[in-house]
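Predict the structure of Sialic acid-binding Ig-like lectin 15 isoform X2.
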Amino acid sequence: MTVQPEVRALEGYPVVLPCTFSHPQHSQHTSLQLLWRLGHGQGASVLFRCTSRTGAPSCEPGPQQDQRYRLEGNPREHDLSLRINSAALQDSGRYYCRVEVQGRDHVSFEDKIGTRLRVEAPPKILSLWAEGSEQSGFTALCRVQGSPPPDVQWLGTEGSMLEGAMLEGAMLEGSHPLAQGSRECFQTVSQLRDVSPGQQYTCSASNPLGKDQAVLYVLPPRPHVGGASTPLLLLLSLPLGAKVLLLLLLGGVWAVHGVRCWRK
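Done. Here is the predicted structure for Sialic acid-binding Ig-like lectin 15 isoform X2.
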């Protein structure tokens, strides 16, 4: 088996994973069954499977085959290359190809090294919100997606860079450990502590493919007639197009789950 150790792709575009093989001459007159899987061992997922029957013009996939995957090569010409349409960040991982030559002398060929697929994308701010209370203080949080991992910075009202932000990774649900050659961590959450009422905070994310920004406004509390103040209002700006502001009171702490959006 011959494969390419690493293939890079851009999110939203098709990508081809090359794989070729050699086999005995008599296999030209027998059926071939081939498959592609993501990951290795017990955590592997079969993504594509098809059968090339003797005399048939193509390799026929099963009825439940995901249409994002299709065979780019011709097995009769020793080519098992796989095409993935509209590559997504979740497609990043290590892929393995295998072919079985059916007949009297049943033999199989399998790639042991795998092809590492790296899907890259510019930064995208998925959510921006704040947690806390007037008593304990507020923390602003910014969840960012991108590959290579974006550099996340917080800017103040005058555009000055703010120090003290904390960054943590967030593994997607359904992902596998990298030791299995599967899905990668490409989301991060940046935290900025001790945000103050009456201030504006900008979350800025960048990588070599682009840049994205979103703005958080913290509005001062409104005093009641009796002198007590109402809970702090948070107004969020995200690049997602939604225009809903929803406040929920949870144990005396106000949290914003909806957003009021516009581009800066």
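The radius of gyration is 26 Å.
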